[in-house]
Amino acid sequence: MEATTIAPHSDTHTGAPRILDREPLVLNNRSYSWITNRVCGIVENKQPLLWWILMVPSVILTGVMVFCFAYLISTGVGVWGQKQPVAWAWDITNFVFWIGIGHAGTLISAILFLTRQKWRTSVNRAAEAMTIFAVMCAGLFPAFHVGRVWMVWFLAPIPNANAIWQNFKSPLLWDVFAVSTYFSVSAVFWFLGLVPDLATLRDRCKPGLRKTMYGIFSLGWRGANRHWSHYETAYMLLAALSTPLVLSVHSVVSFDFATSVVPGWHTTIFPPYFVAGAIFGGFAMVLTLMIPVSKIYGLGDLITPKHIDNMAKIILLTGTIVGYAYCMEFFMAYYSANKYELQTFQLRGLYGPSVWAYYFMFGFNVFAPQLFWYRPFRHNLWVVMFVCMCVNAGMWFERYVIIGTTLERLLVPGSWRTYEATWVDKVTFLGTFGFFMMLFLLFLRFLPVIAIGEVKGVLPQSNPHHDDHGKDGIQEEDLMNYPDRHVPKVLA
Amino acid sequence: MKRIWQHPEETQTGKRYWRSADELESRSEFLNKLGVEFPAGDTLNEEERANSRRDFLKLMGASTAMMGLAACRRPLTNILPYTQHVEWIIPGKPLLYATAMPTATGAVPMVVTTHEGRPTHLAGNPLHPLAGGLDSFAQASVLNLYDPERSQHPLIDGKKSTWGGANKALEAVTADAKKDSGASLAVVVGHTSSPTLHRLLGELKVAYPQAQLFGYEATGNEGQQSANQEVLGAGVKTFVRFSKALRILSLDCDFLGLDPVAGEAIKHFTNQRGIDTPGGEMNRLYSLENRYTVTGGMADHRKPLAASLIASAAAVVADLLDIKEAKALADAAPAALKEWLAPAVRDLVDHKGKSVVLAGSRYGAEVHALVAAINNVLGAYGTAIELLQGGAEAVLGSSAELEAALSSGSVKTLVSLTGSSLLYDAPASVATAIKSKGVKVVHLGMLPNTTAKAAMLHIPAANYLESWGDVRAADGCYSIVQPMIQPLYNGASENEVLLALLGRKKLGPAEMTKSDAVAATPEDPSYQAVRDTFAIIAGGLDEVKWNFTVRDGFLKGSSYLKATGVINTGAVAAMVAKAKVAAPLTDSSLEVVLTPDAGVFDGRFTNNAWLQEAPDPITKLTWDNAAWIGSVTFRRLGLKIGQLVKVKVNGSELILPAIEAPGHVSNSITIPLGYGQPGLGFVGSGEDNKGRGFDAYKLRQSATEFVLPGATIEVLSETYQLAITQDHNTMEGRALYREATLETFAKIPDFVVKTGMDSHIPQNISLYKGQVGKFDEKTNPDGFNYEKLHQWGMSIDLSKCMGCTACVIACQSENNIPIVGKDQVVKGRLMQWIRMDRYFATNEWGEGKAKADDVDISATPEQLENAEMVQQPVACQQCESAPCETVCPVNATVHTNEGLNAMAYNRCIGTRYCANNCPYTARRFNWFDYNKRPLDELYLGPLSTPEKTGMRESLQLQKNPNVTVRMRGVIEKCTYCVQRLEAGKILQKQKQRDSKNFRVPTDSIKTACQQACPAEAIVFGDIADPQSSVVKAKASPRNYELLKYIGTRPRTSYLARLRNPNSAMPGAEKIAAWSAHQI
Q1: Residue A176: helix, strand or coil by DSSP?
Q2: pLDDT single digits (tens) A422-435
Q3: For chain A, is the Cβ count within 10 Å smaller at the N or the C terminus?
Q4: CB of B461 within 8 Å of any CB in chain A?
């Protein structure tokens, strides 16, 4: 590319504010073909040794999870550690934890798409895949935690011999609808985004099973203008459709608690607090996955420090919202003058039997992200990974605190008991990580981890006005019209 | 394909032919018929024609498919009708029979519910003069009948034998006895009032004049018996009239619990405590005891006092009443005790003729002699205590005499008919003597226990529900014990063994010779024996009288006659002179107090799973016993709950876990008896069959020794897992249990609603009209018409409830509630629908302290030693606005129009959300298939041992056929015994026929817990019926709802407890101090 110099036109300046340089979304000025080759290469080449090192234990853990669920179903819910006042514990904790993780994907793909946050393109594919896999893990728990799994179809509004309809007053039923809607819309959204890239892969394959499969799933995509036009409309509509879902799913999940009469659950702050927490946890999981992926597969030019910086900022913001919510819960408990409520929070955070969980939660979720106020920390991948790990753990503890420690100290002290998890609880949870990792590794193996078509769209070359500036170079007006256009540093 | 005939179009011109008038006149109708395939040979009617061949094939195909589907559902089982209908029996409808359960103090009159000939549930007999509820032992005794580990075959030298062998061995015994006219024969019976048994013993004495007869109970009351004998006169029995006793002083007498006294039913005591008008009169109970008992929990004034000081306490009371004999002993008593007793005795004296002093049965004759003298001075005899002249009874030797006879070697054959297990619970000397002198033991018992296995001959005993017998209640009222069922394993009753010894009966299954199978079988000798006794008592064998007696469960007018109350003061002096001044307890010289256990009593109920799993009313311990140690000593020793201690006393030692017992006096250790029996299977002896709990009998030297001074304790490092059902003993300042004194009630009649959040919350005003409101033709026509429907409700009077757990077991028996085993109790998965919450309160509690919001109110050990104890049964509260119902996603728990919070087990998928959202934690979840899997193999699921899988056959017989046996994965809870409500309504509908506006008669339906409650604390009925007693109870100013602030509007409400402290007593102002500042 020809280097151009722009003479400073201070005298001809129109008075509009100067545009600061933007960090490029793709580093090193990569070309279209480089991106295609690099991303498709991951699928087409042999997987690195590390992939196998992760895949084998993941498959084993998945097997263990299957065994644990089989044991649970064949023997009874008693193999878990639940007891009289603590009827939900790790099961629903894990459910809410995974559902929360499943939040970042759709947020990145839908809300950031609608708000024209172009940096999303490098991470949205993987985040969406993560969402779908996390929701799959999440769905396992409510499905299998019930006492009689073989009767779980009672939750579906289908006509049956009992002639009894579902109870539409129950938040659990809302949950069923919310989660299944979220899952199906997310899956369709993800698949739709994949179609052009699958066609790319198809076109690069030799004839064979691979080509046939990619061919089937690319739905006859030819890259025609009509295709792109329809595709973009559909993508936008789906984005608009899934945006409210991002907010609704976790709000509905929070209703499981908020609509109850249990002190410590019966709180109006729960819906926004849960959504913020979910985004918080979801972004942490995206970073936890994407940083290693980018390092292993050499995607550093596509997943740049800017991406990580942006996500760290979101973690800082949502982490602070979550911290505010924690404090507000305490304040409300005090301010309500409801002593039962107050005692619940005192027992939860000050001197109950499970205060350790509260300390973990508070430390991991509120204090750890505060490191991100400092820019170098946001750019140090070790620090970022550390904070994300803290947040991952902290968000699990948050759900455990809400569910476990509340139920341990219900309204009648005569029935108070402390919860202890059994090996089945622990191994099942570990197993879902294996399942999640297995699915994610298979995704890396068979599908493009980065949305090739979309990343290309944010390259400077993609700007129809890329070469428009003629001899005067880029005009300020151009920049105003295309604000996220990359301006090479040399021009400044 | 159906063929359609295409008819040629008719020509419009020319000659016209027609086949019938139809064709000529109404063409279309006729032509339609032409399309039918076989118009001529059509014999089908309209309906058949509608079902074409295609329809037939469709239906056949669908049916075949559905048949196949049906096969995947469940195996076909047939309900077979009786080909020859059994008289009276209607399947699903129970038959009720009256009978009585013999006990050491008399009898428990009861009505037995039988389904198709299986006794399933027991309840008190309301017709009987001593009518009342049942205690937990009587309530659970039906399970003993079906105990799968019950002795099923005679054992000879511990080996399985046949009834033929048993009869032969018994014949050898009688032959031997005949030779030496019984000189080497000894018969041991329990403390029983059965006239037939005593008559047969008399006959035995005639047949074998040299034979020796003994009475033996492991936890007997020989001291009391001998004192009564000496002081009151031979055969004189006391009968306490609680209805007339206004002031009661209990010297470690747990008369509401494990130490029943001969007297009126407990309800006569508790009924005086439910005062509903401010300023009413109420009885007052003073209690001195070393540990908490349910009686101590009910006391207005309670002082923890070492058991070894009870004699001194009796002496102090006697001394204050100027009984000279007690002077020396009283002078040695501690000053604090005198100070405490002085105002109490003044109060007793002020209520002369209405006051009673009771002493625990475990104390010696000196205490009981003093108590008799005290009661005499207080004018109790003839007023609050009746003196009755007992009937003709055989003279029985004491346990000491039994021991002496065995040691001397004069006894060669010992026939044990007592419910106790001699080789397990008698002092070691008895076992040694039996072994060393080669005594042949003939043992009759329900369990193959230690004695059964060591005996020369063990005969399986029949349960009282399987055999003919008779018994006299505490007041002498005569009852027939009638069998409800053929003996399950052909067991024999005591009477039958005596008859066998007399050569009048062969034990075992009734033999039926082929030749005279049709001939009438000769009357059962044991039945005949009871009829003979009846003839003596009723003054002739009047068949009408007999039938009425069997039907009503007792013989009218058969009570003992009154005795003249003359106190033999000389005997008192002689007995008191034997009393020794107890050495004070120190850290190095403690006392051990042996008590019966609330679960297994003296060990005879060890195989009763309901009792094993019913939490001890005080410690909330299940499946085990432990050393109860008061907080001061417990904390001084630095013990943890369940930590093992070695208790040494009398030269023997016992290692057992310790448990902290608030309200327990320091340097005293209470150990419940009856545990540690090996070889009785999972329930009685645990997974390893080595015995549950710890055998404390080996600590004592004689069978009358219950208070063992001079003990030492050593702390070991190991801990033992105890299954305690309640972790938390304080109420955390929450106003769940409300109480006040009679004085507060008089001053602030509405104290109960001025407590806690109730006083702050405004009245709920519903925004909704219509369904929620009450029906009114003008203002609210859509409203709920309460007039037309029953509206069930319950009220529990905490002034009366003492926490005995009889209701818990009654509920378990009625509602087929499974037991879960120790391991599951540890994990917090108890299934009992009623939870008995027991809280301790330090009596420093008051205005100032209660203000603190601090959850962590920790009491000092000294405060814990003087803690108050309260008991609160909590089951499903049947909320009108039930939080559980709204959260169930599958509508498995719904509200009935009669106000029940119903459970549809078939609909439940087990999300457990309802359990979380229940503010009362009243819902129970089937974590495992408790009804199907062996309890020690729950975690093996389908891999559990096939032979042990499924409910044991005998236990299936106990189940109530009108209540579903729940599988795993479903929630269950109290439903106000909905099966009883429906049965009552059906009965009423049958009576009322077509009348639409039907109501069951007022208070005609009782729930199982209500029926069982000996204190009559539970009142149940129709709250839409203004006449019902539940409406009256709920109108009491003491009425409050648990956790009202949540707005659940529970149908079960509680009546706050009232206590009646004596203001002259030390510390009276702190007792049940009411505070508005609870939360």
Answers
A1: helix
A2: 999 999 999 999 99
A3: N
A4: no
